[in-house]
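Budget justification note: compute hours in this period were largely spent on complex prediction jobs such as the one shown. Inputs:
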Amino acid sequence: MTEIRCIQVAINEQPQTAEVPTRMLLSDFLRYTVGLTGTHVGCEHGVCGCCTVLLNGDAVRSCLLFAVQADGAEVTTVESLTREGSLHPLQAAFRQEHALQCGFCTAGFLMTLIPFLRENPRPSASEIREAVSGNLCRCTGYVNIIRAVQSYVALSRNSP
Amino acid sequence: MTTRWFGDRVPRNEDQRLLTGQGRFVDDISPSNALHAAVLRSPVGHARLLRIDTAAARALPGVEAVWTAEDLGDALRPSPLVVPHDSLTHGRTQYPLATDSVEYVGQPIAFVVAADRYVAEDACDLIEVEYEALPAVVDLEAAVAPDAPLVHPDVPENVAAHLVQSVGNVEEAFRRADHVIEERLVLERGAGQPMECRAVTALFDPVEEVLTVYDTTQAPLSIRNGLAVLLGLSENQVRVVAPDVGGGFGVKIMMFYAEEVLVPLAAVRLGRPVKWTEDRREHLIASNHERGQIHWASLAATNEGVILGVSDRFLHDTGAYTPYGIIVPIITATQLPGPYRVPNYHSDATVVYTNKVPVTPYRGAGRPHACFVMERLMDRLADRLDIDRVEIRRRNFIQPHEFPWDVGLTFQDGRPTRYDSGNYPEGLDRLLEALDYEGFRREQAEARLAGRRLGIGIAAYVEGTGIGPYEGAHVRIDGTAKRVVVSTCVGTQGQGHETAFAQIVADELGVEPSEVRITTGDSRAMNWGSGTYASRSAVVTGNAIGAAARVVRQKAQSVASGLFEASPDDIELEWGRVGVKGSPQHSLSLWDVAVVANPIRYAYGDQASEAMQLMKTRDGAALESGEAPGLEAREYFAPDRATWASGAHGAIVEVDADTGSPVILRYVAVHDCGRVINPTIVEGQIHGGVAQGIGGSFYERLVFDEEAQPLSSTFMDYLIPTSMEVPDIETVHVETPSTLNPLGIKGAGEAGVIPVAAVMASALEDALSEYDVRVNQMPLSPSDIRDLIRLGTDVIGSQPG
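Corresponding output:
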């Protein structure tokens, strides 16, 4: 049988202690153990980007990490973006521009974009395209995802 | 009906939960105490099964069950042949688990249920299977050669079906032709690849004796009905729910995938919930594929470029089984004439077994193949006669005054292929205007001087959409919740049903779309219907919903007419109120009218109680014969036949002649899906379809080796286009209402993908005209394009047969 280890991890600013099998993926830990099912798994080999979460603020593929690798770290998932029921402005822009259809890949795009836009708050269209080029979407053809990010950037430029 | 909401860009009702991680996809549902399943799949393309030893797997701690075919009892039955056809003389469907042999890599052999998925996969590794290799049938042309090995020993020549359809006299047309074009044209295998793989979770309640199955299926009612038969339960004892589904594109409709039988069976037998989620490798090798045809097509024309006839012979790769009959090749055969007058047509389709995963419809479903063939022929004709590629199309389009246009063939629904309406010349004009076709020619010439190779490609298509048999809808005003509640059985996989359907209801009932709650894909919410496929939900379900909402409106008018002593015709529903026209003081909220419509004499809540005061005591029975309490209605819509959408796409592509790398500089899609419910949603559908078409043109290729081993089993090998490959896509709406349904709707779900390969082929040839390149197959990788440049002919190098 696989070894069990105790890990401590802050998930969306909530400290958690859990016993996990060493071979358990971080994505499975988040979804099945913690019950945060907003993080989705699309390929389990690190290509599609659906499972993207933040590990200590950086976008990572949670299907390529074991839960034990998150020991002592801060993990941030899509569930953290909404405050008191109101959408994060980037989420609102996604809704306004119809940047999601089935919604399965959406969390991965959002969690890729959050740190990108923090580092680069005024990206060009081509920089946006490059930023999300590691996230696959099969519904939108990316057209409205790019437009949503542009619209978010334009709005945040106008706000003080 | 007012049209305040129909046609409006209403943001979607479903977005809030999907954006915040609160969506409910099948794998998000984890009943407590659930067991997890894994499937042992064939690692070989064709073999006899000599021995399966599951002892070690059964002995592994945490394993609850290990099944092979012989453990399935009554459930060991081949899946039904969903769409029989006279031409399908040798249809074959598969058992949930392989019995004596395996016919493709990925075919399920054993099923393991264990404490978690990790242990279930460990147990799969412990199952020993002894195979006796059989020769594999891989190549489509080799499969029908006289000495070919057989996929099924009792199917001679590997031919499942031979379908011939004819219009007019094609031989005579070719005899009198000034010009005959002949081409061999190939579309390789591709697949839908929704971002969410398939998943099934089942739980059996022994008290209620109800089996609940959460399934990523596009057709929950069909699965419900089939499972009831298979498990010996009544239909009421099986509830199938397709909750949020992460994309479908056709691959999620099947009757049955093995796991759709095995997981519910395990839940019943083991008395515990059972959960199975496919991984991407499984999806790539073992969930159904599509495309995969070779055509030998010829076209006869006059010196003026007028089509006299088209003759097409093709091979269709159905893989190892025919679970969906011959729907895909029928669609190819019947849609090939496209938007053109083709007075004489002959189609000869041979459906061929190979040792590959079965082929069932994927977005487009045979149409991209048909469009590719016809549009390639049109480009060749233009080149032969030295007529512009635009002009050749204009000369052959069916004209707006010629509808309804009878193609003379029998469509997939068994009904005549008869186009109801359309305006193909206008669609082309709008495309050329958007592309600035003339201006581009100047730009192209200038670029050529600077050493850049730009090309323009255009293609036109038609699409039979919205086929029957029927769909139903139930609409009810929930006065307490202050909401309109609508139920329909069709599943939703991202098409925005919760919004588009709500817009239809909102107009009928004078409420806002956000006040309409749509339940889709739950067999308990609607007992009758078929499913989401063939670009039919908006057409068939949309009209059923419209009809039900109309009946509810009439009931509301009738109730209010009694309250306000006015004629029902003078009662209007607007802004959530029901009242007498021009007399605002005589009105009630729709919610209160719903409460009053239920004559039970008491109501909870201040507003409702107040409304009840208005009720007149009626002499005699509270309900007259035929009258029903409340504001609700159930209606159905059954279209006479398919309604025909159409469009024209164009692209400007730059090719780097040194690397063979294509870059799409512009893409314009003009499309006509009749009256548009929500332009934003329709545009999204077009964008996604075009992106899939770009994948099928340049990136997505399912490769098999000579032993039928799939080599594209990860997303590192099967290349879904990313944001770097898909350009901004411009869309233009043309609206010629359907004449076959009250709302004038035509389907839009599949349209985007249909002409893309044809557009790209045309653009490549234009960009590389100096090399006299001929594009006769798709997809083309950069190295394929380099080969074209070097060789100047199609990559395969074969001549028309």
